[in-house]
Amino acid sequence: MSTIGHNGGEDSDDRLRLLIERVERLEEEKKGVSDDIKDVYNEAKAVGYDVKIMRNIVRLRKIKPDDRREQEMLTETYMAALGMI
């Protein structure tokens, strides 16, 4: 019979259980944060902000300025090629 973990035995079983429990706690925290973010977007929508645009801005702010400029330039190039601008 094969054992779980590199050392096998009861210590490995305890270690595995602790790791699984940590992941479960983190998943719960992630769900809580996700719910909080959703609440903020709902609040923004309630006062008249466009949530789709806000999400786009949040995504863009994660990108380095040089990379963002390159993406914008390529997007404009593609749009022009398709007659969209």
From TrEMBL:
GO terms for molecular function: DNA binding. Signal peptide: none annotated. Keywords: Coiled coil. Residues 9-43 form a coiled coil. The keyword Coiled coil applies. This is GapR-like DNA-binding domain-containing protein. It comes from Novosphingobium resinovorum. InterPro entries: GapR-like_DNA-bd (IPR046367). Residues 13-83 form the GapR-like DNA-binding domain.
